[in-house]
Amino acid sequence: MAKEQKVTEELIDITDEASYASDDEAEDGPSPVVEAIVAERDELKDRFMRALAETENLRKRAERDRREAEVYGGSKLARDILPVFDSLKRAVEAMNEEQRTANKALFNGLELTMRELLNVFGKHGISLISPQVGDKFDPQLHQAMFEAPVPGTEAGDIIQVMADGFQLRERLLRPAQVGVSSTPKS
């Protein structure tokens, strides 16, 4: 506060001196005190502009983070629910035809629950990555759990699917877990 008052008093003094200056002094150019004030003004203007730019960048970053949180905020919950889908799928696949006939209501309930879970996933932008045996391995979507030479396949072909993968919009939640052929080219 005292510094601001001192600067104000100096400005008043400079203004008074400038008003009483003769015409000869005015022609010599600005006095060193005026030059110092102009330099200080320029420095303050520069600092102000930088602070303004930084504030604008911060606002844009906060808006981007807010949009991203809105779109991808549920990814942790989605990852935690994926094993539920896996368990339902294993239960359906484990039932043989005789068990399906004997426990028709249970089988239909499991399938209905799986379909409903996939529908809820779809509403929230989660899509199933379900590679098939014979597809080419894509490291962006698949995780190779093992490699094995299998006759009749080429290196990089999927030979077994252990678990489906899931994607939240363009982000990978979990890669599909697959076995890949390592058969060398003939």
Any key phrases for this structure?
60% helix; 186 residues; three-stranded antiparallel β-sheet; elongated; Nucleotide Exchange Factor Grpe, Chain A, domain 2; alpha+beta
Describe, in short, the structure shown.
With 186 residues, the protein is α+β, with helices and mostly antiparallel strands. Helix content is 60%, strand content 17%.
What does this structure look like?
There is one protein chain. Strands 1-4-5 form a 3-stranded antiparallel beta sheet. The radius of gyration is 36 Å and the shape is elongated. The model is unreliable at 21-25 (pLDDT under 50). The protein folds into 2 domains: 2-72, no CATH class; 75-181, Head domain of nucleotide exchange factor GrpE (Nucleotide Exchange Factor Grpe, Chain A, domain 2). β4 and β5 (171-174) form a beta hairpin. It has 186 residues and is α+β, with helices and mostly antiparallel strands. It is built from 6 helices and 6 strands. It has helices at residues 2-20, 23-27, 32-72, 75-94, 97-102, 104-123; strands at residues 126-129, 142-148, 158-163, 165-168, 171-174, 176-181.
Provide the residue-averaged pLDDT. 86
Strand content: 15-25%
What are the low-pLDDT stretches, counting only 5+ consecutive residues below 50?
A: 21-25
Major beta sheet summary: 3 strands, antiparallel
Q: What is the count of structural domains?
A: 2
- Looking across the biggest beta sheet, what order are the strands in? 1-4-5
* Structural classification: alpha+beta
Global shape: elongated
Over the alpha carbons, how many angstroms does the gyration radius reach? 36 Å
Taking the alpha carbons of the first and last residues, their distance comes to: 85 Å
The CATH top-level class label of the largest domain: Mainly Beta
Element-by-element helix/strand order:
HHHHHHEEEEEE
Count of individual beta strands: 6
- Helical residues, percent: 55-70%
Count of alpha and pi helical runs = 6
CATH superfamily of the largest domain: Head domain of nucleotide exchange factor GrpE
